[in-house]
Write a structure and sequence with these properties.
Blueprint lengths: L8 H11 L6 E6 L5 E3 L2 E2 L6 H7 L7 E4 L10 E5 L4 H6 L6 H8 L3 E4 L3 H9 L4 E4 L14 H12 L4 E4 L1 H9 L3 H24 L6 H13 L11 E4 L20 E5 L3 E2 L2 E2 L3 E5 L6 H19 L7 H18 L5 H5 L39 E4 L2 E4 L4 E4 L2 E4 L7 E2 L8 H8 L2
Parallel strand pairs: 1-7, 5-6, 7-8
Antiparallel strand pairs: 1-4, 2-3, 4-5, 9-10, 10-13, 11-12, 14-17, 15-16, 17-18
Length: 430
């Protein structure tokens, strides 16, 4: 891996928090992701399932984590099952983790090879009544490919039909949404790498540059700073492309006078950052662009202040909507009649700001977290309002990542990334 090794005590803490919420006489099992095929003999790069990584730090395919806190023997309470290295694998792919290396990474002392999994599980199932299966219940999830986890669930249900089933996801949704200090440091590092990329492109952008050239500058800076690359598919959207919320073609020329909406950020050690900035191709904003930009910035700053413990996401979004409505009135994009006669299910401001303001962030860019439950200290949220005006040929979104504090305003992990108009113009023209 490109990243520095993470202190295993983070994963020891995470397992302890999870097992404390398991039922008596239960087992929890977590599988790594598959390596997904493309065609012929080509595959996509391996990306570890975030749950097994959160609980063990193991960043290798064909791995299984088993937790059985009520096992009769100490060595059975937590176990890893790993793919055993062969001479052929070592030559062609590089050696896999040894048992000793797996302990250093995870803090788990009992490590078996994968071929022993069914035999070891059979013994533990005779002591157990319940198994926790790890289904994906994220509110944005759309899954069409059968995962390694799903195949395991099918196999287990057929093999052990008399055992009760419990779900690990509700536990993980709550645990993963509240970050440990080590996790905040990793996210901060991802944000710092993103800052380096953004500062690089401020010097690079000029009229007639291609969107994909900007993308290339970002990935260069990210990888040279130990990131695997983008935390998500980057959006480099010049001109009217910014009004396509998930524009990812990044294949157009950036024209003088246009704005470029940059929704692009680095990962580090599987942890995400999530940045959006909107910059002028020619290095200067027009007066109209400045007015809209400052309106978005005001909404972002006011929204950030509301991210405090106890806040509910739905009420938060409604309050942000009121602030946005006021700004859109000031810009002449809405009039009072639009607001007075609006449909409560789709307020007038949604014509120009149609997405949510914030989402949880962490190991996943759209991270675990239950939106119907109050916000807590050490949750990390994005703040990303936008105004999109197709008829004027531009859209503006601004986004930072913030940590909710026990008291006071959130801490902005991106406070050093330029966002004020004057600073961006100065850097682009220096």
């Amino acid at each position: 891996m490109k990243y520095h090794q993470i202190d295993r005590h983070l994963f020891i803490k995470n397992r302890s928090k999870f097992t404390a919420q398991m039922k008596l006489k239960s087992i929890a099992i977590f599988n790594s992701n598959d390596i997904y095929p493309v065609s012929a003999d080509s595959t996509l790069p391996f990306a570890q399932h975030r749950d097994i990584f959160y609980l063990s730090g193991i960043d290798q395919e064909e791995s299984i984590l088993l937790l059985c806190p009520d096992a009769p023997y100490e060595h059975q309470k937590e176990m890893l099952f790993l793919k055993e290295t062969s001479e052929l694998i070592a030559i062609w792919e590089g050696a896999k983790l040894t048992k000793e290396e797996a302990f250093v990474v995870s803090g788990i002392k009992t490590v078996h090879w994968l071929q022993d999994f069914e035999k070891v599980l059979a013994e533990l199932m005779s002591y157990s009544e319940t198994i926790y299966i790890n289904t994906n219940e994220h509110y944005r999830a759309t899954i069409e490919t059968e995962t390694r986890e799903a195949r395991f669930v099918k196999w287990w249900k057929e093999k052990y039909p008399a055992h009760a089933v419990a779900k690990s996801n509700p536990i993980l949704q709550r645990l993963r949404s509240v970050k440990e200090s080590e996790e905040l440091d990793l996210i901060q590092n991802a944000c710092n790498i993103t800052e380096l990329g953004f500062r690089r492109i401020l010097e690079f952008v000029k009229p007639n540059v291609m969107e994909y050239e900007i993308e290339a500058e970002f990935i260069h800076e990210f990888i040279r700073n130990r990131s695997k690359g983008f935390a998500y598919t980057p959006i480099i959207a010049s001109g009217n492309n910014a009004n396509v919320l998930h524009y990812i073609e990044n294949n157009k020329q950036c024209k003088a006078g246009d704005l470029i909406l940059l929704d692009v950020a680095a990962e580090y050690a599987n942890y995400s950052s999530d940045l959006t900035r909107t910059i002028p191709v020619s290095g200067r904003y027009s007066e109209r662009q400045k007015a809209v930009y400052n309106a978005v910035l005001k909404v972002k700053n006011e929204a950030t202040k509301m991210l405090t413990p106890g806040t509910l996401w739905k009420q938060y979004q409604a309050e942000v909507g009121k602030i946005m409505s006021s700004e859109l009135l000031g810009l002449g994009l809405l009039d009072k009649a639009d607001v007075q006669n609006e449909n409560p299910e789709w307020p007038a401001y949604k014509k120009y700001f149609m997405h949510g303001t914030s989402h949880h962030m962490g190991l996943d860019t759209h991270d675990y977290g239950i939106l119907t439950e109050p916000m807590q200290a050490n949750m990390v949220f994005t703040v990303e309002p936008g105004i999109y005006i197709p008829e004027e040929g531009f859209g503006i979104r601004l986004e930072d990542n913030v940590v909710i504090q026990s008291t006071g305003e959130p801490f902005n992990l991106m406070k050093n990334i330029p966002i004020e108009i004057e600073e961006i113009e100065t850097l682009m023209n220096s």
